[in-house]
Amino acid sequence: MIQDIFPKKLDNQYQDKKPLENSIILVFRERQILIGQDARQNLSLPRLGELGRQIGEGDWRSSLQYYFSIEEMDYFAFQGEVAPFGAYEYAPVRSFRQMINKEICFAIMTGWHLHQWYSASRFCGRCGERTVQDDRERMMRCPSCGNAIYPGIAPAVIVAVTDGNRILMSKYADREYKKYALLAGFTEIGETAEETVRREVMEEVGLRVKNIRYYKSQPWGIDGNLLLGFFCELEGSDEIHRDAGELAEAGWFERDRMPAHDDGISLTREMMGVFERGEEKAF
Predict the structure, then answer these.
(1) What is the dotted CATH code of the domain comprising 154-282?
(2) Which of 86-100, 120-134, 202-216 has the lowest mean pLDDT?
(3) CATH class of 10-140
(4) Cα 96 to chain center, whole Å?
(5) Tens digits of residue pLDDT in 148-198
(6) pLDDT of the residue at 56
(7) How far apart are CA 98 and CA 103, in angstroms?
(8) Where do the structural domains in the chain lie, given as residue ranges?
(9) Do 10-140 and 154-282 share a fold?
(10) Among residues 82, 111, 147, 233, which is most buried (max CB within 10 A)?
(11) Is the Cα torsion angle 63, 52, 49, 43 positive or negative in sign?
(12) Is the peptide bond before 7 cis (omega within 30 degrees of 0)?
């Protein structure tokens, strides 16, 4: 999956670091990122030195925020405006999910998650005062009332409903992603992940399930989610009652006739691959 960058490792602990000339700088604009891409889809992100030559003199470095490191490479975000320059153009954050540049794509996802949180946490939700970065941990602190604001992570389930040699697959309604997926939904307050599985399957396709088994998790920074994968089995009738507001399509597919396969990127696709290989009973 996209976060599997071994032997390299993400270090996401907050540190009061200063950027070096070769530090990577994430520059977001609305839902886009400044990035270079060649004809072979090789990606590159601007370094501090390159950005400095483009912006010129001034105190713009004070607008750099340390985000994380991958091995020895530090990633910072620039909280300011930068026009496209050289090989760098703005492109949608959601367009970067690929194997050829897995490390960069994962960094973009993780950086976007932090960028969204920082943007939404500039003011205290309790008293309205401007917040400040805590000097010890990844937390925005209100100097007036002491409110502590930590990065938000939304748990959501990915559900593979199986019936012998068949798996339930669907397409979302009114979403940017138009390919086949598994059922999914957010865990609500006071609800276990297993209860989320039962509720989402019933709400989206009107089916009952049994033998719910946890498979694996995946951080999905584009939406600020932590995805929790589950396999389960059909209980009772297999007649689908699709929620048209959530799903454009939903249907059963034989193991050897699946319309989507493992892409090495997403938890959804990896779970499809597990079923396609007949390995779902191991979990």
Answers:
(1) 3.90.79.10
(2) 86-100
(3) alpha beta
(4) 11
(5) 999 999 999 999 999 999 999 999 998 777 789 999 999 999 999 999 999
(6) 83
(7) 9
(8) 10-140, 154-282
(9) yes
(10) 111
(11) positive
(12) yes
Residue with tokens 């502590």: 148
* 126: pLDDT strictly greater than 80: yes
Distance from the first to the final alpha carbon of the chain: 18
Residue whose C-alpha is closest to residue 136's, from 16, 31, 38: 16
Q: What is the pLDDT of residue 176?
A: 74
Q: DSSP for 113-141?
A: HHHHHHHHTSB-TTT-PBPEE-SSSS-EE
Task: Please check whether residue 267 is in contact with residue 196, taking contact to mean a CB–CB distance below 8 angstroms.
Answer: no
- Strands 247-254 and 166-172, how do they pair? antiparallel
State the Cα–Cα distance between residues 190 and 202, nearest whole angstrom.
Answer: 18
> Percentage of the chain with pLDDT > 90?
88
Per-residue pLDDT of 210-236, as tens digits, reads 999 999 999 999 999 999 999 999 999
Alpha helices in 56-192 (DSSP H): 102-120
pLDDT over 90 at 38, yes or no: no
Q: How far apart are CA 176 and CA 190, in angstroms?
A: 30
State the burial class of residue 127 (Cβ atoms within 10 Å of its Cβ: 0-12, 13-18, 19+): exposed
User: Are 161 and 167 a contacting pair, CB within 8 Å?
Assistant: yes
**Is the per-residue pLDDT at 276 higher than 90?**
yes
Which pLDDT score, from 0 to 100, does residue 24 have? Answer: 98
Tokens of 16: 């009061």
Enter the tokens of residue 225: 């989610």
For residue 94, give every residue at least 6 positions away whose Cβ sits within 8 Å of its Cβ, in sequence order, or none: 31, 176, 222
